[in-house]
Write a structure and sequence with these properties.
Blueprint (H helix, E strand, L loop, with lengths): L2 E6 L10 H7 L4 E6 L3 E2 L5 E2 L15 H12 L7 E6 L1 H10 L6 E5 L16 E6 L7 H13 L4 E6 L7 H14 L3
Parallel strand pairs: 1-2, 1-5, 5-6, 6-7, 7-8
Antiparallel strand pairs: 3-4
């Protein structure tokens, strides 16, 4: 039975930027999909929502539309055989939408939790991978997400790696291990 890994890119990037990650996370029984954010960023690339407004608005411009886009697109997949994963803003979107659905799992690389109420139960397993020296999304964001998710009752796999705002080989290996656990052949 085919399983699915859906990858979400970060702010200012595109789905094409995830091609190398998709290649290494591909498996014979797993289809990897790379989804493009629905909004163009004024300075180039794409975004899930207006990142600059996030500090002052808990629901910044573009976020409701991106949520709807992801929920509608995910509804076409077998949720119990699907993992939603993202990097940076894509990691935040994976957590935002993924925690509301009965997915096999959620992975956030260098992401963060949006300000939110406690999501519905039960929660899917979550993996948080973050660079210790991340200059864009400080590691404290991942530590805070881990504490919040644990308090909500989620099963959390957590690891910090030496590095900045990037996906290091050790994080990819940890993601492969997580995928093997939540999407067994």
């Amino acid at each position: 039975m085919t399983s699915y890994l859906v990858l979400l890119h970060g702010w200012g990037a595109s789905a094409a930027d995830l091609a190398p990650l998709a290649e290494v996370l591909q498996a014979p029984d797993r289809q990897v999909l790379r989804w493009q954010a629905p909004h163009q960023r004024p300075m180039g690339g794409y975004m899930w929502y207006d990142l600059m407004a996030l500090e002052t608005d808990p629901v910044p411009w573009g976020l409701p539309e991106s949520r709807q886009y992801l929920q509608t697109s995910l509804a076409n997949l077998p949720l119990e055989r699907t993992v939603l994963a993202g990097f940076s803003q894509g990691g935040a979107m994976a957590l935002d939408v993924g925690l509301t659905l009965p997915l096999a799992g959620v992975i956030s690389f260098s992401g963060y939790l949006h300000a939110t109420n406690t999501p519905p139960q039960p929660l899917p397993p979550v993996a948080l991978f973050h660079g210790q020296n991340d200059e864009m999304v400080p590691a404290i964001a991942a530590r805070s997400a881990r504490q919040t998710l644990s308090r909500w009752g989620a099963t959390v796999t957590y690891a910090e790696f030496v590095g900045g705002h990037t996906i290091v080989p050790e994080a990819i290996a940890a993601a492969q291990s997580f995928l093997g656990t939540v999407l067994p052949p």
